[in-house]
Amino acid sequence: MSNQTPSPRRNRKGAMQPTLNDVAREAGVSSITVSRYFTSPDNVREATRIKVEAAIEKVGYVRNMIAGSLASATSRVIPVIVPSLSNVVFIDVIKGLQDEFEAHGYQLLLGKTDYDLTRETQLIRTFLGWSAAGLVVTGLRHDAATRQILENWNQPIVEIMELGEGLDLNVGMDHVAAGRAMTEHLLARGYRDIHFAGAELDRDYRAAMRYTGHREALAAAGIEEAPLLDLPVRQQMTSGAQALERIRDQHPECDAIHFANDDMACGAILAASRLGIRIPDDIAIAGFNGLPIGEHVTPQLTTIISPREQIGRVAARKLLARINGEPVGELSHDLGFTLRVGGST
């Protein structure tokens, strides 16, 4: 087996992918020093390590973990990066991806970011080093380091869950439109003092996009204020109960709460039962995602159903088509959503 460094490939812009020599040149050190940084970092002076790390980030270098002649080949592994592995939303997406990939001889390599873009960069830098055949990553927002890495990479990428201009392929739904649709439903039911409740919206930015649609619908109805409760910690159903109590205490005039997700909305419905609050007579509750639990609370939750498993299946099919050099159709694929009206509104 040859130990020679493989020839660099071209990235999606047609330029050569960054090499170890590019890192050395940018850092002003030798290639041997950069290699030592990867293999024996404790043997590299701190000042030098800092220069090498800065150079790696600037040029978007990804270390190939497969040595020798195999380094130029791709594996049958496809990394999938999601914000959470405990949220059923992403479990459904992963199921769709896994079913399609395994049917074609590919295996998933899972990573979770905890909604942290810096961690996303770390995962991508590690996963791509194993000669992945493609990549599935959640969302279109990435920090500068991640974007640099992905623009330098030459394999197919599909960004999922939302819509917009992606790096390559994009499969998802319009979250602004979903937020707008739910608020229009609440307005059509006669509710006027409608609050939006979520948690950590700076990190869960797709929920923030739905709040944008919520605000737009209120403005279109001549309602200027769009009260927002953004809790500092996401505790799922507990957060929903907290939000209900806080809004009822501080804004007794509120007649409907549009929650960022079904977990919070169901937590509010269960709390209302304990507190003697009648849903929807005293206050209406709406959610997002269409999780099974929403069908089993009383009253049944009004929600937006997101096509989670279908997003995974369509994303996998498009990625496989790209890997095989086949037509992929539209680059950005909108799978839409469905409003399911329950007794909570």
Automatic annotation (TrEMBL):
SMART domains in the record: HTH_LACI (SM00354)
GO molecular function, one term: DNA-binding transcription factor activity
Entry-linked InterPro entries: HTH_LacI, LacI/GalR-like_sensor, Lambda_DNA-bd_dom_sf, Peripla_BP_I
Pfam families assigned to the protein according to its UniProt record, in alphabetical order: LacI, Peripla_BP_3
This protein's name: LacI family DNA-binding transcriptional regulator
Keyword Transcription regulation: yes
Species for this entry: Cobetia crustatorum
PANTHER family named among the record's database cross-references: LACI-RELATED TRANSCRIPTIONAL REPRESSOR (PTHR30146), TRANSCRIPTIONAL REGULATOR (PTHR30146:SF33)
Classification via Gene3D superfamilies: 3.40.50.2300, lambda repressor-like DNA-binding domains
Ranges for domain HTH lacI-type: 18-72
